[in-house]
Amino acid sequence: MSEIRPIVKKDAKRIALYANNREIWLNLRDYFPHPYSIDDAHEFIEMVNGPGPNKIFAIANKEGFIGVVGIHPLTDIYNCTAELGYWLGEPHWGQGHVTKAVNMMVDYTWKETKIERIEAGVFDFNPASMRVLEKCGFTKEAIRKKRLIKDGKLCDEHMYYMLRP
Question: b vs e for 143-161, b when ≥16 Cβ sit within 10 Å of the residue's Cβ?
């Protein structure tokens, strides 16, 4: 059984362990470090627990920390929208943890914020993430052709969204 909870200092070792994975890095923005060190984990924990609009939580099971889920509110004329992001330690893939965490993050967003729209972009080579979003009720809005460069390769971005009910 998985849950979402605040990220705490004692999560640092497990964050560094799971985040230091090329497969995870390939599906995230380039500012996510690779390789990923314990110092990167400590900086991340400070950032998520500091001031700011991001709402970022640990995905945890009975063993403890296994991943991250969060919303990142946009600004200016987009301030009614937040971007959803997540990653999960590879040993826990395919077990439904992300689907449950995304559903909990969506519920949290509708209850605790004034956000009207949640959106998520997915690399074209990540069909598992697309399935998660679809299972959670997100709608594919567009495929943005050759929009992203990751690891030196041009990729399409699949854009998903959900509106406040």
Answer: eeeebbebeeeebbebbbb
pLDDT at 51: 83
CA gap 146, 161 in Å, rounded: 20
CB atoms within 10 A of CB 41: 24
What is the model's pLDDT at position 156?
98
Helix axes 12-19, 38-48, angle to 10 degrees: 120
Domains of the chain: 3-163 (3.40.630.30)
- How, if at all, do strands 81-88 and 117-123 pair? parallel
For helices 97-112 and 127-135, angle between their N-to-C axes, nearest 10 degrees: 50
